[in-house]
Amino acid sequence: MRQGASVLVSLSLLLLIAAGALNGCATAPRFDTRGVDVRITPATAVKDAAAVRNHRVLWTGMVLNSKNLKDHTEIEVLAYPANSDHKPDLGREPLGRFLLEQPGYLETADYAQGRLITVVGVIDRAQEGRIGEASYTYPVLTVAQLHLWPKSEQGQAAEPRIHFGIGVIFR
Questions:
Q1: Cα–Cα distance, 25 to 158 (Å, whole number)
Q2: CB of 125 within 8 A of CB of 140?
Q3: 10-19, 25-34, 71-80, 102-111: lowest mean pLDDT where?
C-alpha cells in the first residue's frame, strides 16, 4: 500500500508540474473589455469625433512612430482588426491611423516602428496632423491598458517551444 501511495504522489506532482508548464505557455494577455464599443474604428471615430468622445475602445495595430513629449509618450499606430486574442491581424486591411497618449515615459526603442500593439483606451479627441505632405485627422486615445507584443510574435504566430512526437525533425 505504501508503494501505491508513493506512485500516486509522484503522478500528482507530475501533473501539477505539467499544468504549470502549459499555463506558462499561454501568451495572450487578458484585456479589460468591459464597456468597449466594438463598433468604433479609427476611421469612424474621426467621422463623428464629438459623438464618440469618452467612448472606450480596444484597438490594435502596428507602431509607426513614437516620441516622448513633456509629460507623456505619443505613439502613432496603423490600426488593424483584432484576432481572437486581441492581437493585430496583419492579413486584413488596415483601418486607419490613431494616436495613443500614455502618461509618463515609455522607452521609444521598445515602441519602435513595426512593433505590434494592443490598447484599451478612451477616445479623447480628434487631432490634425500630417502624413508626408497630406493632412490627416487622427483619433487620440488616452491609454487605460497597453500591451506591446513580443518580437517573437510579430507577424505570424510564434513557433511553439514544446514539441511532442516520435521521430526525426527536418527543418
A1: 11
A2: yes
A3: 10-19
Domain layout of the chain by residue ranges: 42-153
Percentage of the chain lying above the pLDDT 70 cut: 73
Neighbours of 118 (CB within 10 A): 22
Residue indicated by cell numbers 505504501: 2
* pLDDT number for residue 126: 95
* pTM of the entire predicted model: 0.74
Q: What is the mean pLDDT of residues 83-91?
A: 95
> With 70 as the cut, is the pLDDT of residue 8 above it?
no
Question: Which residues, at least 6 apart from 145, have a Cβ–Cβ distance to it below 8 Å?
Answer: 31, 32, 119, 120, 121
Half-sphere exposure in the Cβ direction for 67 (13 Å, CA): 5
The CA distance from 5 to 61, in Å, is 53
Q: Give the span between the Cα atoms of 62 and 95, in whole angstroms.
A: 11
**Measured between alpha carbons, how far is 106 from 109 in angstroms, rounded to an integer?**
9
- Fold for 42-153, please state it: OB fold (Dihydrolipoamide Acetyltransferase, E2P) (2.40.50)
